[in-house]
Amino acid sequence: MINCKDAVSRLWAYLDRNLERVQERELEEHLGMCRHCCGELEFAKQIRERLRTAGEMEAVPEEARARLDALIAGFEEPR
Amino acid sequence: MKFEDMIRPHLAYLYFLAVRLCGERTSAEDLVQDALLRAFRAFPGLRNPDQPRLWLTRVLTSAFHDRVRRSDRDDLSLESDSGFDLFDRITEEDPFPYSDRVHLDFLDLFDDAKLLEVLQGLQPDLRAALILAYVYGFTAKEIGEIMSRPLGTVLAWLHRARKQLERELWEYASSRHLLMSRAEARV
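YS: structure for the whole thing
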């Protein structure tokens, strides 16, 4: 069975679904036995979730939107 | 299709991506303007108009890369990989002795503004790869296309980006005494 160091090095790739099937099975086997690495897995999931939601905005600020719209409207496409 | 019709549905996406890359709105707007100009110039030669989002992401990311290269902040060779492990460090230091969810308590120290600030501490290309992967869900292969790098390089960048992020989170919390103040508040 793989050790904790190997398991931890695979966690993010596991969440990305980037592991080979054999590596994935080895990791899952380890996770089934190791509470520490299960904690690391949960922690990695939470960091990813926070990254995803940080900086979410409902809309582009009005003034910036107006400037970008004006820029686009000013582009003259060749006929 | 006209350029304007192609670009408008993606304008907000480009702006939000730029804010995350740059960390603040003024630089982000400049970056979007730069990307729009580049996209407009390249639009007549666009060979695959079926994937405008991927193409526009490539244009904006390339503009971002050129900016940070000009400011000479993207020398990846200077940074060596670190054996730092945030989960282990939190376990060892135990900053929340009365908590049974210390790792999640640690993340709770960071509101969105702080987390975006921490992201700015990452090397720009690593930051871009991390954002594209974990905020927008691009695969490593797609990030390779966006950033014009082979798959192996992207996977290595993502690994290093995660390590840098872990270290930056810890250093941010330590240098601003977030750990101490939170622990003290609970006593």
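YS: worth flagging: The interface with chain A takes residues 2-4, 7-8, 11-12, 15-16, 19-20, 25, 29, 32-33, 36-37, 40, 44, 85-87, 103-104, 107, 110, 112, 115-116, 119, 130-131, 133-135, 140, 155, 158-159, 162, 165 of chain B (CB under 8 Å).
IM: good catch. Also The mean pLDDT of chain B is 86.
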